[in-house]
Design goal:
By secondary structure, the protein is mainly alpha-helical. The chain has 5 helices and no strands.
Length: 122
Amino acid sequence: MSDTSIPPADDLRPQLDALQAQLDQARRDRRDDAIRAEADDLRALNPDDVIAWAASAQPDLFAAALDDPAAVRQLVQACKAARPHFFGSSAPGSPSNFGAQPPSSDRNAIDRALKGRKLFRL
């Protein structure tokens, strides 16, 4: 008969703790990747800013996002509402336009803006 006894649980505790730490880190990384992806979809300028804001301003929702994909979207939406400068404009046009609105194509509005000046001289 061979001696294949199972080691005492106390001998395995450090290994179990290390494995649990790796699992917890993998879950946090997966949550952060999901937040980054959602923030990218909503045109975040720096998705890591969204993660930092979420961890400090919404800790309960941030913790819930570990297991709930709906919480990720809710978290990023809350960040966009609280910190709109973290996100680029969703409107078409140049961001240098007022309010990131596209220039008017209405001829009367253009004439009012130019106040009678011509666009170019020949």
